[in-house]
Amino acid sequence: MHRFVSGLMGSLVRAAAVLVVAAGAVGCASTGSYPPAPTNAATPDYNYIVGPGDMLNIIVWRNPDLSMSVPVRPDGQVSTPLIDGLVAQGKTSAQIARDVEKELSKYVRDPVVTVIVTSFVGPYSEQIRVVGEAAKPQFLPYTQKMTVLDVMIAVGGLTDFADGNNATLVRARENNKRYTVRLNDLVKRGDIGANVEVLPGDILIIPQGWF
User: Fold this and answer.
1) Where are the alpha helices (DSSP H) in the chain?
2) pTM to 2 decimals?
3) Of the residues 57, 96, 145, 202, which has the fewest C-beta atoms closer than 10 A?
4) How many CA atoms lie within 13 A of 134 on its CB side?
5) In Å, how far are 18, 115, 122, 143 from 99, measured between CA atoms?
């Protein structure tokens, strides 16, 4: 009988030890395995980069017949009546304007061109991507001073199964360095201190929680 009780107690102790280790592992996982994302990330010299799907309003001063709105094609180029196949992808609106002026100078004396982006998609390398347990996972065009809160509003928040405080922000501009962001605290508890800025090309990964 004594041996039976001793064996039973030993089994209970080992089981308790396993539960403690497991609980500790879960506790560590819930706090995130990467450093917290920096609150401020935007740079003052950011310029929007044009990508396929953007709509450009090309204005040629004193030449209304050459002024028009054109889409950036899937191949990254735009076409106008006198220009066929001008590369727009990967350039700022000012750079595109200078390129249009160069091409039009073959037909028009001293053309003055302004390019305005009126519909924004941006190149893939600049888009913010949200995957995992978001209500509406999707990509978003980056805008200056964009934050994780802006991103979460755009994707409709978290699902009921999201482990928001264990979400990961992958930063392409820092060689895919990973940061932890506290989405539960931000979205469900209103902790503005958990809000951080995003950068072009960031990927937000929201894992599923264990229940």
Assistant:
1) 2-30, 93-104, 148-154, 183
2) 0.80
3) 145
4) 24
5) 67, 10, 19, 24
Please state, in angstroms and rounded to a whole number, the distance separating the CA atoms of residues 196 and 131: 18
* Whether residues 38 and 73 fall in one domain: no
Structure tokens at 10: 């030993």
Same domain, 73 and 104: yes
Strands (E), the chain: 55-60, 68-71, 77-80, 83-87, 113-119, 128-132, 138-140, 167-171, 177-181, 203-206
Q: Are residues 150 and 193 in the same domain?
A: yes
Q: Per the structure block, which two tokens stand in for 139?
A: 């990509």
Among the ranges given (5-19, 72-86, 187-201), the one the predictor scored with the smallest mean pLDDT: 5-19
Q: Which domain holds residue 148?
A: 31-45+125-206
Kindly tell me if the per-residue pLDDT of 10 is higher than 50. Answer: no
User: Do the strands 203-206 and 128-132 form a parallel or antiparallel pair, or are they unpaired?
Assistant: parallel
